[in-house]
Amino acid sequence: MAVRLFVGNLSYTTTEADLRTYFGAVAPPSQVVLPVDRETGRPRGFAFVEYLDRAHAERAIQQFNGQVFNGRPLAVSEARAREDRGPGGPPSAHRPGGFGGRPSFGGPPRPFDPNATPAPPRSRNFGPDAKPQRGGSAKAKKKESERPRGPIPLKNTGRSFTLEDADTTADEAEPIGDDFATSKPRDDTDDDKT
User: Fold this and answer.
1) 20, exposed or middle or buried, with CB in 10 Å at 0-12, 13-18, 19+?
2) How far is it, in rounded angstroms, from Cα 11 to Cα 71?
Protein backbone atom coordinates (compact mmCIF):
# COMPACT_ATOMS: atom_id res chain seq x y z
CA MET A 1 0.00 0.00 0.00
CA ALA A 2 1.29 3.47 -0.90
CA VAL A 3 2.34 5.86 1.86
CA ARG A 4 1.85 9.58 1.37
CA LEU A 5 4.15 12.07 3.09
CA PHE A 6 3.37 15.69 3.94
CA VAL A 7 6.29 18.04 3.25
CA GLY A 8 5.83 21.44 4.87
CA ASN A 9 7.77 24.72 5.13
CA LEU A 10 8.80 24.64 1.48
CA SER A 11 10.31 27.64 -0.25
CA TYR A 12 7.91 29.20 -2.78
CA THR A 13 10.55 28.74 -5.49
CA THR A 14 10.56 24.94 -5.08
CA THR A 15 9.29 23.01 -8.10
CA GLU A 16 7.90 19.50 -8.46
CA ALA A 17 11.09 18.44 -10.27
CA ASP A 18 13.21 19.72 -7.34
CA LEU A 19 11.19 17.60 -4.90
CA ARG A 20 11.32 14.53 -7.14
CA THR A 21 15.11 14.82 -7.35
CA TYR A 22 15.60 15.55 -3.63
CA PHE A 23 13.35 12.74 -2.35
CA GLY A 24 14.68 10.41 -5.08
CA ALA A 25 17.85 10.03 -2.96
CA VAL A 26 15.92 7.52 -0.82
CA ALA A 27 13.88 5.92 -3.61
CA PRO A 28 12.03 7.28 -6.64
CA PRO A 29 8.65 8.62 -5.41
CA SER A 30 5.55 7.29 -7.15
CA GLN A 31 3.81 10.67 -7.03
CA VAL A 32 4.69 14.29 -6.14
CA VAL A 33 1.90 16.86 -5.72
CA LEU A 34 2.73 20.55 -5.24
CA PRO A 35 -0.56 22.45 -4.57
CA VAL A 36 -0.81 26.01 -5.90
CA ASP A 37 -3.05 28.90 -4.87
CA ARG A 38 -6.15 29.16 -7.09
CA GLU A 39 -6.06 32.94 -7.38
CA THR A 40 -2.34 33.66 -7.71
CA GLY A 41 -1.04 30.39 -9.16
CA ARG A 42 1.83 30.54 -6.66
CA PRO A 43 2.87 27.42 -4.68
CA ARG A 44 1.30 27.22 -1.21
CA GLY A 45 4.47 26.18 0.66
CA PHE A 46 3.78 22.47 1.12
CA ALA A 47 3.70 19.31 -0.97
CA PHE A 48 2.78 15.63 -0.87
CA VAL A 49 5.31 12.93 -1.79
CA GLU A 50 4.10 9.36 -2.16
CA TYR A 51 6.15 6.15 -1.94
CA LEU A 52 4.90 2.68 -2.84
CA ASP A 53 6.90 1.07 -0.02
CA ARG A 54 6.39 2.00 3.67
CA ALA A 55 10.07 1.39 4.44
CA HIS A 56 11.11 4.02 1.87
CA ALA A 57 8.60 6.51 3.30
CA GLU A 58 9.83 6.00 6.87
CA ARG A 59 13.45 6.36 5.77
CA ALA A 60 12.55 9.61 3.93
CA ILE A 61 10.93 10.99 7.11
CA GLN A 62 14.03 10.18 9.17
CA GLN A 63 16.43 11.55 6.55
CA PHE A 64 14.66 14.76 5.47
CA ASN A 65 12.65 15.97 8.49
CA GLY A 66 14.35 19.14 9.82
CA GLN A 67 16.91 19.22 6.97
CA VAL A 68 17.42 22.53 5.14
CA PHE A 69 16.18 22.48 1.54
CA ASN A 70 16.22 25.67 -0.60
CA GLY A 71 17.06 27.72 2.48
CA ARG A 72 14.27 26.39 4.73
CA PRO A 73 14.11 23.45 7.18
CA LEU A 74 11.57 20.90 5.98
CA ALA A 75 8.78 19.42 8.08
CA VAL A 76 8.27 15.88 6.78
CA SER A 77 5.66 13.56 8.29
CA GLU A 78 3.12 10.99 7.22
CA ALA A 79 0.09 12.71 5.72
CA ARG A 80 -3.19 12.32 7.58
CA ALA A 81 -6.41 11.42 5.84
CA ARG A 82 -8.86 14.24 5.25
CA GLU A 83 -11.39 12.61 7.62
CA ASP A 84 -8.92 12.99 10.52
CA ARG A 85 -8.65 16.73 9.96
CA GLY A 86 -12.30 17.54 9.40
CA PRO A 87 -13.85 19.27 6.40
CA GLY A 88 -12.00 22.59 6.55
CA GLY A 89 -13.16 23.42 10.07
CA PRO A 90 -11.02 23.79 13.16
CA PRO A 91 -8.64 20.91 13.84
CA SER A 92 -10.05 18.11 15.93
CA ALA A 93 -9.08 17.70 19.58
CA HIS A 94 -6.73 14.74 19.01
CA ARG A 95 -4.42 16.72 16.69
CA PRO A 96 -1.69 18.88 18.19
CA GLY A 97 -1.99 22.65 17.77
CA GLY A 98 -5.04 24.67 16.90
CA PHE A 99 -7.90 25.27 19.28
CA GLY A 100 -9.26 21.74 19.68
CA GLY A 101 -13.00 21.20 19.43
CA ARG A 102 -15.82 23.64 20.01
CA PRO A 103 -16.00 25.19 23.46
CA SER A 104 -18.54 23.70 25.83
CA PHE A 105 -20.93 26.02 27.67
CA GLY A 106 -22.74 24.35 30.54
CA GLY A 107 -22.04 20.67 29.95
CA PRO A 108 -22.89 18.27 27.15
CA PRO A 109 -25.47 19.25 24.55
CA ARG A 110 -29.04 18.31 25.31
CA PRO A 111 -30.84 16.02 22.87
CA PHE A 112 -33.77 17.52 21.00
CA ASP A 113 -37.17 16.23 22.06
CA PRO A 114 -40.06 17.45 19.87
CA ASN A 115 -42.70 16.31 22.46
CA ALA A 116 -41.15 18.17 25.38
CA THR A 117 -42.96 21.19 26.80
CA PRO A 118 -41.20 24.46 26.10
CA ALA A 119 -39.33 26.07 28.94
CA PRO A 120 -40.90 29.20 30.49
CA PRO A 121 -39.39 32.46 29.23
CA ARG A 122 -36.45 33.65 31.26
CA SER A 123 -36.78 36.71 33.43
CA ARG A 124 -34.67 39.51 32.07
CA ASN A 125 -34.75 41.71 35.16
CA PHE A 126 -31.50 43.60 35.43
CA GLY A 127 -32.50 45.67 38.46
CA PRO A 128 -34.25 49.02 38.87
CA ASP A 129 -34.10 51.65 36.19
CA ALA A 130 -31.41 54.30 36.53
CA LYS A 131 -32.53 57.77 37.57
CA PRO A 132 -32.78 60.19 34.65
CA GLN A 133 -30.14 62.90 34.63
CA ARG A 134 -31.63 66.35 34.61
CA GLY A 135 -29.73 69.55 34.06
CA GLY A 136 -26.58 67.87 32.80
CA SER A 137 -23.59 66.71 34.70
CA ALA A 138 -20.59 68.52 36.13
CA LYS A 139 -18.49 67.51 33.10
CA ALA A 140 -20.90 69.18 30.68
CA LYS A 141 -20.82 72.40 32.76
CA LYS A 142 -17.03 72.39 32.84
CA LYS A 143 -16.77 71.89 29.08
CA GLU A 144 -19.20 74.72 28.45
CA SER A 145 -17.23 77.10 30.69
CA GLU A 146 -14.05 76.38 28.72
CA ARG A 147 -15.62 77.22 25.35
CA PRO A 148 -15.04 80.69 23.86
CA ARG A 149 -18.13 82.88 23.88
CA GLY A 150 -18.64 84.69 20.60
CA PRO A 151 -16.11 85.84 18.00
CA ILE A 152 -12.48 86.38 18.90
CA PRO A 153 -11.91 90.11 19.50
CA LEU A 154 -9.46 91.90 17.18
CA LYS A 155 -7.12 94.65 18.32
CA ASN A 156 -7.33 97.87 16.42
CA THR A 157 -3.89 99.46 15.92
CA GLY A 158 -5.28 102.78 14.72
CA ARG A 159 -3.50 102.62 11.37
CA SER A 160 -5.19 101.74 8.12
CA PHE A 161 -3.51 100.75 4.90
CA THR A 162 -4.64 101.66 1.41
CA LEU A 163 -3.45 100.72 -2.04
CA GLU A 164 -1.76 104.11 -2.38
CA ASP A 165 0.35 103.39 0.72
CA ALA A 166 1.61 100.21 -0.88
CA ASP A 167 2.56 102.04 -4.12
CA THR A 168 4.55 104.78 -2.38
CA THR A 169 6.56 102.31 -0.35
CA ALA A 170 7.35 100.31 -3.48
CA ASP A 171 8.57 103.43 -5.34
CA GLU A 172 10.69 104.63 -2.44
CA ALA A 173 12.38 101.29 -1.86
CA GLU A 174 15.48 100.38 -3.84
CA PRO A 175 14.84 97.33 -6.06
CA ILE A 176 16.84 94.39 -4.81
CA GLY A 177 17.03 92.45 -8.05
CA ASP A 178 15.76 92.58 -11.59
CA ASP A 179 12.52 90.70 -12.21
CA PHE A 180 12.93 89.36 -15.73
CA ALA A 181 9.33 88.21 -15.96
CA THR A 182 7.74 91.66 -15.44
CA SER A 183 10.36 94.19 -16.45
CA LYS A 184 10.59 95.46 -19.96
CA PRO A 185 13.83 94.85 -21.82
CA ARG A 186 16.44 97.58 -21.48
CA ASP A 187 17.52 99.30 -24.60
CA ASP A 188 21.27 100.04 -24.45
CA THR A 189 20.93 102.63 -27.20
CA ASP A 190 18.79 104.85 -24.89
CA ASP A 191 21.56 104.98 -22.26
CA ASP A 192 24.16 106.02 -24.85
CA LYS A 193 22.11 109.02 -26.00
CA THR A 194 21.84 110.68 -22.61
Assistant:
1) middle
2) 7
45 contacts 17 by C-beta, under 8 angstroms: no
Distances (CA, A) of 174 to 155, 168, 169, 191: 32, 12, 10, 20
**Chain segment 87-142, per-residue pLDDT in tens:** 555 444 444 444 445 555 555 566 667 777 777 666 677 778 778 777 666 666 66
Rounded-to-integer distance, Cα 73 and Cα 57, Å: 18
**pLDDT tens-digit series, residues 129-185:** 778 777 666 666 666 677 767 776 677 777 666 666 555 544 555 555 555 566 666
CB-count exposure of residue 7 (10 Å: 0-12, 13-18, 19+) = buried
Least confident residue range of 5-9, 72-76, 143-147? 143-147
Element (H, E) at 47: strand 47-51
Query: In whole angstroms, what is the distance from residue 160 CA to residue 163 CA?
Result: 10
What per-residue string of b and e applies to 70-89 under the rule 16 or more CB within 10 Å gives b?
eeeebebeebeeeeeeeeee
- Which among 89, 69, 72 has a CA at the least distance from the CA of 18? 69
